[in-house]
């Protein structure tokens, strides 16, 4: 029997608890990713984001192959749901346990709850790494209140991790190195191809030009040339770590001068992509190509090179941006699916925005960066 590492939003080798714990298992290991219609749903996933995801998966697959003997990322595809994939794998009797990182999104919670409720032949184990804290534990604490200020977030973090000696004053745990060795199950693919003939296994990560053939007519009119040409941020852990080194570890001046809101994360030209005045690491953290703890300690290292330096405010520093991110994840966990709804009757703290009716000309101007 095999231990599976289900990659979702932790597309990296470093500081990856499911992967690290699986490597300690006495069972052989497989790593896999599942494409479902929910993954590439255009209501959630735009083409640029999807392209970034495909690049990140390709990078992860290559890093697994390069770093580990027989290492690989198995790509599964279904027109149904993840539950359908696990049902087939259970019939084949090939998986003993599955490790994965907690997903706090409304869709992720529904998916994971359904799988754990209906799939009994496999043991599922959840780890927390997409955020600093274990979100369910934080909101379940006695006396918890929805955080709305930086001081409230400081208190939550210090309560979780204690006070630290770094510039932030918070003792965030250090990121973990990738496993030295992983015993990959070299017979797994052969078994499931024989026992699960209906299970679709992709030999490689899809390219943009292949999306229509693999995922259907939804991608018939994709302008591949335009998407590839306008791709400024290349997805993947390799690029994330290089950007971390370039923008943070080797750029103390940038880290010390960083001050929100005196930055912009977008290009200043409608015709040319330029390096933003932020770190540009947000998309890498969003897909888990870079862990938040890795970035936090990178900022620690940068500040340590400038003895005696003090930032004006924790909230406006790079630390503060990560704490604000954590705050909104906590709020999402505490408030639930209504947190992000743009509705007049939304009981959450989100501000209601009265959007105009769809105007094709205005949308086209926005898409082309011609709004003024």
Written overview of the protein:
The protein is of the alpha/beta class. It has two domains: 2-133 and 182-230, Rossmann fold, CATH 3.40.50; 136-175 and 235-335, Serine Threonine Protein Phosphatase 5, Tetratricopeptide repeat, CATH 1.25.40.80. It is 41% helix and 9% strand. The chain contains 15 helices and six strands. The chain has helices spanning 17-24, 47-67, 82-92, 106-118, 135-140, 150-161, 188-195, 211-215, 224-229, 237-249, 252-257, 282-286, 292-304, 318-335, 360-367, and strands at residues 2-6, 29-35, 73-77, 95-101, 123-127, 200-202. The protein has a six-stranded mixed beta sheet with strand order 5-4-1-2-3-6, sandwiched between helices. α10 packs parallel to α13. The longest helix is centred in the first third of the chain and has 21 residues, at 47-67. The chain is globular. The termini are far apart. The relative contact order is 0.15. The model has no long low-confidence stretch (mean pLDDT 90). Its cofactor is FAD. This is Photolyase/cryptochrome alpha/beta domain-containing protein. One of its GO terms (cellular component) is nucleus. InterPro entries: Crypto/Photolyase_FAD-like_sf, Crypto/Photolyase_N_sf, Cryptochrome/DNA_photolyase_1, DNA_photolyase_N, Rossmann-like_a/b/a_fold. One of its GO terms (biological process) is circadian regulation of gene expression.
């Amino acid at each position: 029997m095999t231990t599976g590492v289900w990659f979702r939003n932790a597309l990296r080798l470093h500081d990856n608890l499911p992967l690290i714990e699986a490597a300690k298992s006495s069972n052989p290991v497989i790593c896999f990713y599942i494409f479902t219609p929910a993954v590439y749903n255009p209501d959630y996933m735009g083409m640029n984001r999807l392209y970034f995801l495909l690049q990140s998966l390709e990078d992860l697959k290559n890093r697994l192959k390069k770093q580990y003997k027989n290492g690989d990322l198995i790509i599964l595809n279904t027109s149904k749901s993840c539950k359908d994939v696990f049902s087939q794998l259970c019939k084949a009797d090939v998986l003993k346990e599955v490790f994965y990182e907690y997903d706090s999104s409304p869709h992720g919670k529904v998916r994971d709850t359904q799988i754990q409720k209906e799939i009994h032949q496999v043991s599922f184990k959840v780890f927390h790494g997409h955020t600093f804290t274990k979100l369910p534990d934080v909101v379940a604490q006695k006396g918890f209140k929805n955080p709305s200020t930086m001081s409230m977030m400081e208190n939550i973090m210090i309560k979780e991790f204690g006070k630290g000696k770094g510039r932030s004053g918070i003792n965030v745990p250090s990121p973990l190195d990738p496993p030295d060795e992983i015993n990959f199950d070299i017979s797994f693919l052969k078994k499931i191809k024989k026992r699960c003939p209906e299970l679709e296994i992709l030999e490689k990560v899809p390219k943009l030009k292949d999306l229509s053939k693999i995922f259907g007519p939804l991608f018939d009119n994709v302008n591949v040339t335009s998407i590839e040409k306008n791709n400024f941020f290349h997805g993947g852990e390799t690029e994330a770590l290089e950007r971390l080194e370039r923008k943070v570890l080797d750029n103390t001046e940038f880290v010390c001068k960083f001050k929100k809101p005196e930055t912009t994360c977008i290009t200043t030209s409608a015709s040319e992509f330029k390096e933003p005045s932020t770190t540009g690491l947000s998309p890498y953290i969003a897909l888990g190509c870079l862990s938040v703890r890795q970035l936090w300690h990178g900022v620690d290292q940068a500040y340590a090179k400038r003895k005696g330096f003090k930032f004006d405010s924790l909230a406006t520093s790079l630390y503060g941006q990560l704490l604000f991110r954590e705050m909104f994840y906590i709020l999402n966990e505490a408030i639930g699916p209504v947190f992000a709804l743009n509705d007049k009757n939304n009981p959450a703290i989100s501000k209601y925005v009265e959007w105009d009716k769809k105007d094709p000309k205005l949308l086209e101007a926005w898409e082309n960066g011609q709004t003024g």
